[in-house]
Amino acid sequence: MADVTRRMLDLLAALQTGRTFGGAELARRLSVSPRTLRRDVERLREYGYPVETRTGPDGHYRLRPGTAVPPLIFDDDEAVATLVGLALARADGAGAGTGAGADAAEGGGGDGDAGGGTSIAAAADRAFGKLDHLLPTRLRPRAQAVRASLEAVPLPGPPVDAGVLAVVGAACARHERIGFVYTAADGAESARRVEPYRQVLMRRRWYLLGWDLDRADWRTFRLDRVREPVPAGALFVPRPLPAETAYAYLRAEMTTPRHRVVVTVEAPADRVADRFKYDEQAVVEPLGERRCRVVTRVDSFEWLVLVVGLLDADFVVDEPRAFADRCRATGERLKRAGRGG
Predict the structure, then answer these.
(1) Which residues are CB-neighbours of 294 under 8 A, at least 6 positions away?
(2) Measured distance CA(107)–CA(185) in Å, rounded
(3) Which residues are CB-neighbours of 215 under 8 A, at least 6 positions away?
(4) What is the model's pLDDT at position 11?
(5) Contact, 213 vs 199, CB < 8 A?
(6) Which of 26, 232, 234, 316 is 20 to 30 Å apart from 280, CA to CA?
(7) Of the candidates 306, 286, 214, 211, which has an alpha carbon nearest to the alpha carbon of residue 249?
(8) What angle, 0 to 180 degrees and rounded to 10, lies between the N-to-C axes of helices 120-134 and 140-149?
């Protein structure tokens, strides 16, 4: 951390204690000269912190009382990045629905906010409108302009209760066991006791990776299906993760039971790759300027039939036979529909 940044944070931490500091005392506390102290205090004022100063023999510095939440120390780029992040959070989970294919993890499939509280999208929407009031005065016009110009289209995905994420996140950090009610893919509810490790955002869904105490095995849970998470008060010694990262484990769990599909498409690889940009499993291999091969894994064939069928290009199914049969059946159904028109 740069010296000036460290000094500013130390100065702010001292002033936020609510004490009144003499200039000499505060300079000694921060190991700076009185001149440097005055310069740093001016910087805090530029950021919008109401630092009061009295000169003379009884001179002092203090942070004006009654400031519940002082302005955040953001530079221009950080303020813009925060607004963009909130805009994405508003969109991610604002729309309910399911993505392409079903999830292979234990919590796969389904929609809804199982937490019953405030969703991340709703909380982000409120924060998005309040952030400019917490920014330094000089940044507020730019932040307001950026906020007014941003519009994010709601993305499909079940909303997650912000309270669930907070409780589970705190338990992960403390290595504390939790209990919760979990709704499975078939709608059945069960009480679970888990050692929580990581919360992972993948394919527009939030998952918890944890050690299920009753099943004595690693499990992944859809967090939108978790209700009433309660810390158990019992700490645990973390086990080694079953993969290099929680994301790697989750991805392997979702990939293992999937069907491998290989399709040769009579279209340029870049155009085809653009249609598969949201499929983390898809690999598009150029076979020349006007042809490519797509290799992917899917839980079901329905969505893939639509994707390749809407490429506006001829294609051949190399494998498996079941996907070729599904394409043929879909084609016959579409032809019958066309005759009816």
Answers:
(1) 261, 262, 263, 264, 265, 272, 276, 282, 283, 284, 285, 308
(2) 6
(3) none
(4) 83
(5) no
(6) 316
(7) 211
(8) 150
Query: Could you tell me which residues are beta bridge partners of residue 286?
Result: 292
Q: How far apart are CA 15 and CA 8, in angstroms?
A: 11
Using DSSP's 3-state secondary structure scheme, residue 179 falls into strand
Distance CA 301, CA 324 (A): 10
Amino acid at 30: L
Instruction: Using alpha carbons, list the distances in angstroms from residue 319 to 22, 162, 260, 327.
Output: 78, 43, 8, 12
Of residues 159, 152, 259, the one with CA closest to residue 204: 159
What is the C-alpha to C-alpha distance for residues 107 and 220, in angstroms, rounded to an integer? 7
Q: What is the mean pLDDT of residues 152-175?
A: 82
* DSSP-derived 3-state class of residue 275: helix
Amino acid at 6: R
Q: What is the pTM of this model?
A: 0.55
User: Cα dist. 211→62, 215, 251, 329 in Å?
Assistant: 49, 8, 17, 43
The CA-atom distances, in angstroms, between 134 and each of 42, 74, 123, 142, 205 are 18, 10, 16, 13, 30
On whether the CB atoms of residues 208 and 169 are closer than 8 A, the answer is: no
pLDDT tens-digit map of 93-144: 554 433 333 344 444 333 333 334 567 777 777 777 677 666 767 777 777 7
- The per-residue pLDDT for 79 is 72
H/E stretch holding 13:
helix 3-15
Which tens digit of pLDDT belongs to each residue from 63-89? 776 554 555 566 667 777 777 777 777
- Nearest to residue 247, comparing CAs of 192, 197, 183? 197
- Residue with the two structure tokens 């036979």: 321
Task: Return the biggest CA–CA distance within the chain.
Answer: 96
Q: Are strands 155-156 and 92-95 parallel, antiparallel or unpaired?
A: parallel
